[in-house]
Specification:
Rossmann fold, alpha/beta, two-stranded antiparallel sheet, 3 domains
Length: 488
């Protein structure tokens, strides 16, 4: 039986998730329409301002099938460009000033691309015609894109400030500081957008001042379950600032989940370089950033994952069929080996690989493979040397469970052992696991938990320096490893 607060949280979150899709669709529709209208107007204006004076007579406007196909293609191009900029990632958390700058930058970039690919070969009177076409397209696209965005965002912000739209929020802590933060968040004329469902008690002390105002949802040991059941999106950390060990433990625990974490400003000195300041209408809080790479790089990374995975599966189809046949002939058991692994934010998923061991080789429990493991088949040993047993991982990439580059996913059985020796392992779950990783390239496969912990340091370095350049570098090293048959 769910607590009332849990039930309310689920209902609120369900509606909010549905509205988020509608909100994103609003931006997509307005951007698509803006792209169509701006290109249509440019087409019409060029006929009257450039082509007619050039030929000495009024050039007719021919809106044939080719034009409409081109118009659709150009609109799709703009949508892709906006997606790659990361604009659609957070449809409810937008700053109009930041939106203005982003809209102009993307408009300028897209106009330059269209100018050099489509406009540069057009009929002109003089070189000034190029300036005219470029200016018209840039001005039209920017204005027609930004005005609807401004209206949608302003309306959304109004709904947030009035309390009609909100983000399910919990407060960590239940005494003085927590009560003070709660009152500041709820006493203003405008809301911060936080729908506070309750608080989580940090210690078992009998005095919990905040319980006089909002319900206690539980203790820190149950925080993951509470966040999942209530569909929590934000957590406000309000405990004593001098308890650094406790603060670090709580933050690590919260980072296991995909939520926004905010803390009081006096804690800034213990989180240098990892936070950004945000003001919540009289309640200044520090938001701990979960953004490991810029939104536009993340969008490009995801796009590259899908494209490369799709092409890899198509190109390796003949090899996959051959491997499936050899595996089936070589030993009994399924061709594809499926095993549960832990992915981003601790979510389990089924990892796919070509089977390289004899069937039921783990009948006595989970165990890692070694260099001369007798459980590995002859064809399995060959596949491991060239790492072609991992080709089915591309299916996991297409499903959105893995990335091309990221820490290798592990089983919960081994993760529980790793966490006892290296609690900071949990930081690896902030990103999708990958087919290859910096740890895989520099260290290789681990044969025991101690080696897993040692390999962990390389993957932590990758997370700190995560970028498209780092991904390209790791992929290059991986290809060299495969060509050199240095897998095991």
């Amino acid at each position: 039986m769910l607590k009332p607060a849990v039930y309310i949280g689920r209902i609120q979150s369900l509606g909010f998730r549905m509205n988020r899709k509608v909100q994103r669709l609003k931006y997509l529709s307005s951007d698509f329409l803006a792209a169509c209208i701006s290109w249509f107007l440019l087409f019409i204006l060029r006929k009257g301002l450039i082509e007619s004076p050039k030929f000495g007579f009024e050039v007719s406007v021919n809106l044939d099938l080719k034009f409409w196909i081109s118009l659709f293609g150009i609109a799709v191009f703009w949508i892709i460009l906006h997606y790659l900029s990361g604009y659609y990632k957070y449809p409810y958390r937008k700053s109009r000033l930041h939106e203005l700058g982003m809209t102009f930058r993307v408009s300028l970039t897209g106009t330059l691309i269209l100018f050099f690919t489509l406009i540069l070969d057009d009929t002109i009177i003089s070189y000034k015609s190029y300036y005219l076409s470029f200016s018209i397209l840039l001005g039209l696209h920017f204005i027609l894109t930004y005005i609807p965005r401004f209206i949608i965002t302003s309306r959304t912000n109004y709904l947030i400030f009035s309390g009609e739209i909100g983000f399910n929020t919990i407060i960590i802590g239940g005494n003085g500081k927590a009560t003070e933060v709660y009152h500041k968040l709820t006493s203003g004329k405008k809301t911060s957008g936080n729908k506070i469902l309750g608080f989580i008690c940090v210690n078992p002390l009998p005095v919990k001042q905040l319980e006089n105002f909002i319900p206690m949802l539980g203790y820190m040991k149950d925080v993951s379950t509470i966040i999942e059941q209530n569909k929590v999106e934000e957590a406000i950390l309000a405990v004593e600032s001098n308890d650094y060990d406790l603060m670090g433990d709580i933050i690590n625990k919260l980072k296991e989940r995909k939520i926004i974490i905010k803390i009081i400003p006096s804690l800034y000195n213990i989180l240098s370089g990892q936070v950004k300041m945000s003001s919540v209408y009289g309640t200044p809080l520090i938001e701990i950033s979960n953004e490991l790479i810029p939104a536009w790089q993340e969008a490009i990374k995801q796009t590259m994952d899908l494209i490369v995975a799709l092409f890899a599966l198509i190109l390796t189809l003949p090899l996959n069929l051959l491997l499936a046949l050899v595996i089936k002939i070589g030993s009994r058991g399924p061709v594809i080996f499926t095993q549960e692994r832990i992915g981003k934010y601790g979510k389990p998923f089924n990892l796919y690989k070509f089977r390289t061991m004899y069937h039921e080789s783990e009948e006595f429990g989970p165990s890692l493979s070694s260099r001369n493991d007798p459980r590995i088949t002859r064809i399995g040993r060959f596949m491991r040397k060239f790492r072609i047993d991992e080709i089915p991982n591309f299916v996991n990439v297409l499903k959105g469970e893995m990335s091309l580059v990221g820490p290798r996913p592990e089983r919960k059985f081994f993760i529980d052992q790793i966490l006892k020796k290296a609690p900071y392992y949990i930081h690896l779950q902030k990103i999708k696991p990958g087919i290859t990783s910096w740890g895989q390239v520099k260290y290789g496969y681990a044969e025991n938990v101690d080696q897993m912990v040692e390999r962990l340091s390389y993957d932590l370095i990758y997370i700190e320096d995560m970028s498209l350049y780092a991904d390209l570098k790791i992929i290059t090293y991986t290809v060299l490893t495969i060509l050199g048959a240095r897998g095991k």
